[in-house]
């Protein structure tokens, strides 16, 4: 009998969490533990945040949001740039933009420039960065020569290339001297090759920025990974394909985003080299050159503001889609700290 009592004591279950036994086997409910109240932000911290972010918000609202809002407002009027805007036309300006074949051609040119910039500059910049990341003779000089075009003013670049690529310019003269006269062409006015001329100039000027950006990304890749792969028998190109390029992916995606937005808003080089009217016939016009030609130059500032709004929203939608579907995996961990 005693053994049975001892066995029943051993088999008695423990009280559930939150229950205690008082004076016997009767459980008593214990009061829940008090919740820890989150400490709010005090007024000194709020004042500090306001002082830090206030000037930035004022500048952003004054020079970004307000101009866009004003452009959208004037886009609803037929306005010549002076006096009050009184001739309200509603969405007529925006409908004319979307129906204008010249604007649609400029939009296609911008899309072509976006795609070709990524396809031409990206691989070339990666190869140059991989080359310059190794110890070679004249490494510093090569880096300087590649980066110098990027820091030269667009006015200087545009003027220089327009003089050299003219029908009687240096390029055709040199081709004739070396026996390659059959390659001479109207580099700037022939619609079949003008867009490729533009892409060559853009690649020459902006590839230095991509190379410097990729070199900075390569510096952040631990050498231990490549050394371990080399010890395991991986070749140089296997290391680059399996280790270097995946780890360089975030830098490449950031560069692609900057290149895409810059190509959508391209204006200066096209305007300087081709002008506002020749660009249409040469097949190199962009949305920005269309805006200037049909807005400021034509004296239709209301229409020009509508074009600016359309250009802004096209760039905004492209940026949001890119961030949502491409940059998300890069920014998600940085914002959430890697928590899911």
Automatic annotation (TrEMBL):
<keyword id="KW-0472">Membrane</keyword>
<feature type="transmembrane region" description="Helical">
    <location>
        <begin position="193"/>
        <end position="216"/>
    </location>
</feature>
<keyword id="KW-0813">Transport</keyword>
<dbReference type="InterPro" id="IPR035906">
    <property type="entry name" value="MetI-like_sf"/>
</dbReference>
<feature type="transmembrane region" description="Helical">
    <location>
        <begin position="252"/>
        <end position="274"/>
    </location>
</feature>
<feature type="transmembrane region" description="Helical">
    <location>
        <begin position="45"/>
        <end position="74"/>
    </location>
</feature>
<dbReference type="InterPro" id="IPR051393">
    <property type="entry name" value="ABC_transporter_permease"/>
</dbReference>
<feature type="transmembrane region" description="Helical">
    <location>
        <begin position="144"/>
        <end position="164"/>
    </location>
</feature>
<feature type="transmembrane region" description="Helical">
    <location>
        <begin position="301"/>
        <end position="322"/>
    </location>
</feature>
<feature type="transmembrane region" description="Helical">
    <location>
        <begin position="113"/>
        <end position="132"/>
    </location>
</feature>
<dbReference type="InterPro" id="IPR000515">
    <property type="entry name" value="MetI-like"/>
</dbReference>
<keyword id="KW-0812">Transmembrane</keyword>
<comment type="similarity">
    <text>Belongs to the binding-protein-dependent transport system permease family.</text>
</comment>
<feature type="region of interest" description="Disordered">
    <location>
        <begin position="1"/>
        <end position="38"/>
    </location>
</feature>
<protein>
    <submittedName>
        <fullName>Sugar ABC transporter permease</fullName>
    </submittedName>
</protein>
<keyword id="KW-1003">Cell membrane</keyword>
<feature type="domain" description="ABC transmembrane type-1">
    <location>
        <begin position="107"/>
        <end position="322"/>
    </location>
</feature>
<keyword id="KW-1133">Transmembrane helix</keyword>
<dbReference type="Pfam" id="PF00528">
    <property type="entry name" value="BPD_transp_1"/>
</dbReference>
């Amino acid at each position: 009998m005693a053994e049975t009592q001892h066995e029943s004591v051993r088999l008695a279950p423990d009280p559930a969490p939150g229950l205690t036994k008082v004076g016997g086997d009767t459980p008593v409910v214990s009061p829940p533990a008090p919740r820890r109240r989150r400490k709010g932000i005090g007024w000194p911290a709020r004042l500090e945040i306001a002082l830090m972010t206030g000037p930035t918000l004022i500048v952003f609202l004054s020079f970004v949001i307000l101009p866009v809002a004003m452009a959208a407002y004037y886009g609803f009027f037929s306005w010549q740039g002076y006096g009050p805007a009184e001739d309200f036309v509603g969405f007529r300006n925006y409908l004319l933009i979307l129906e204008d074949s010249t604007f649609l051609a400029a939009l296609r040119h911008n899309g072509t420039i976006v795609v070709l910039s990524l396809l031409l500059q990206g691989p070339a910049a990666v190869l140059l960065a991989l080359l310059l990341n190794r110890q070679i003779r004249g490494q510093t000089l090569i880096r300087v020569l590649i980066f110098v075009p990027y820091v030269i003013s667009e006015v200087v670049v545009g003027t220089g290339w327009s003089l050299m690529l003219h029908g009687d310019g240096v390029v055709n003269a040199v081709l004739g001297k070396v026996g390659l006269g059959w390659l001479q062409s109207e580099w700037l006015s022939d619609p079949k090759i003008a867009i490729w001329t533009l892409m060559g100039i853009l690649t020459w000027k902006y590839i230095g920025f991509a190379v410097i950006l990729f070199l900075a990304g390569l510096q952040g890749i631990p050498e231990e990974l490549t050394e371990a792969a080399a010890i395991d028998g991986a070749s140089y190109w296997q290391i680059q394909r399996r280790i270097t390029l995946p780890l360089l992916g975030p830098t490449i995606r950031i560069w692609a985003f900057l290149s895409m937005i810059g190509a959508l808003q391209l204006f200066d080089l096209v305007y300087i080299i081709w002008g506002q009217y020749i660009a249409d016939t040469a097949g190199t016009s962009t949305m920005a050159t269309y805006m200037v030609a049909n807005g400021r130059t034509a004296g239709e500032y209301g229409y020009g503001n509508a074009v600016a709004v359309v250009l802004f929203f096209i760039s905004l939608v492209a940026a949001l889609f890119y961030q949502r579907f491409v940059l998300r995996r890069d920014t998600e961990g940085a914002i959430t700290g890697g928590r899911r």
